[in-house]
Amino acid sequence: MPPLPVEKDPLPCRVIGVLDNGSAGLNEVALAHLRRADVVIGGARTLALLAHELKPDAVRHDLTGRLSAVPDWVREAREAQRHCVVLATGDPLCHGIAPYLAQHLCVQALDILPNLSTLQLACARIGLAWQDARIVSVHSRDAGEWVPGSPPAHGLYALAQALRAHDRVLVLTSPDNGPDRIARLLLAEGLGDDFQMAVAEHLLQPQERVLAELRPPEAAVMRFAALNVVLLWRLVPAPRPVRFGLPDQAYAQRQPDKGLITKQEVRAVSLARLQLRADSVVWDIGAGSGSVGLEAARLCPQGHVYAIEKNAADHAIAEGNRAAFGVSNHTLVLGKAPEGLHTWPDPDAVFIGGSGGELTELIELVLRRLRPGGQMVMNFVTLENLATATQALAGLDVPWDVLQLQAARSRPILHMHRMAAENPVWIVCACAPEVAHA
Predict the structure, then answer these.
(1) Predicted confidence (pLDDT) per residue in 357-368, tens digit
(2) Is 396 helix (H, G, I), strand (E, B) or coil?
(3) What whole-number distance in Å separates Cα of residue 186 and Cα of residue 66?
(4) Which three-class secondary structure state does DSSP give residue 362?
């Protein structure tokens, strides 16, 4: 009986990091894999850069605009026992193609040969330590200029959040989201005097240029080469704000009647009942001065707050408070709920501080949209709204409860102090079921 044929394991796909100096920046191992490759996958520019190193009969796949096809190209090459190479930029594991391939193939199918990152090179050019820096890629679909309050879908959103949380930020740019637009983001967020910029263009090419000491107002009106990276570092120490339970005086409020703010004590209990997590999506309906939503934004640095206020004067005050608080994960719109809520993502927590008369409809909508286990917290100061809310909740299959909270604050009287009672507030809480709605 003839021996059975020995099955060979598919050859690994080599993912090779390449810089703009081409083969001069590759070691002998990477060059050997490249020169014997039967299938080479890369961007048009990288394929052209290394064309002289490839076998004449090597199959070349341009992945530009065809990223989703790459895993199939790799599978076909491996099944045919052909040597396959994917050309990546710099370190393929740093905002590169390697994690994508590992997700669609498997880690064992890949042999990753990293190169220096362009960010490492840029930091080396100006002597900037980068071990504690935050790396952000804005190489995404163009979403236009940054506007304060932009939602997470905006291509510069992650950068805006990183600037609030880190002293050093390294940015992989794109032709649309270039250094000038990044500088304008800093100005829009009130950070123009807080950061210094460096821009490194055409690294490892004859026309390399490093602009090491740029201020955002200057960079905002400059033009830069398409190939660049941006380094940002703080000149002014980051603020260390109180995240929870700020005094009422910390917020601008309607004058002369200071009434449209959730008082500190009620705000603290309401935020506690919202059961917020670092990445919670929060709705703030009837934002008033914005106090609850703005503190929620600080408590959810990886989440986002969507707020709505129907009164134009209060909306303007809340916008001013948002700017003063220095948060970038808070979207505020002028409108009357429930209009427009269908465009918001499903929330983990909802705070209702006011309504325009559609309370029952609003409660039903929120409980349909809340994620499993999500919390809805409502504040009422009138018996009528309390009755409407409890009647609506009684007809729904959700757990709910009511807390009456009345605080008294000390006030001076001559050389002594007395206790002055604040108006009672009813805090009505409901929880969405842990299982998804049908």
Answers:
(1) 789 999 999 999
(2) coil
(3) 33
(4) helix
Count Cβ atoms within 10 A of the Cβ of residue 63 and give its class: 0-12 exposed, 13-18 middle, 19 or more buried. buried
For residues 47 and 87, is the Cβ–Cβ distance under 8 A? yes
Give me the mean pLDDT over the 416-433 stretch.
94
Q: Which pair of tokens denotes residue 138? A: 């804005």
Contacts 24+ apart (CB under 8 A), 216-223: 216/183, 216/184, 216/186, 216/187, 216/191, 216/192, 217/183, 217/187, 217/192, 218/183, 219/179, 219/180, 219/182, 219/183, 220/180, 220/183, 220/184, 220/187, 221/180, 222/179, 222/180, 223/180
Place of tokens 């032709």: 175
Rounded Cα distance between 269 and 377, Å, is 10
Q: Which helix (H) or strand (E) holds 389?
A: helix 383-394
Provide the pLDDT confidence category of residue 9 given band limits of 50, 70 and 90. Answer: confident
pLDDT in the model for residue 437: 45
Q: Is 132 exposed, middle or buried (0-12, 13-18, 19+ CB in 10 A)?
A: exposed
Please tell me the pTM assigned to this model.
Answer: 0.89
pLDDT tens by residue, 324-345: 999 999 999 999 999 999 999 9
Task: Name 402's bridge partners.
Answer: 428
Backbone angles phi, psi at 258, to 5 degrees: -85, 80
DSSP state at residue 346: P
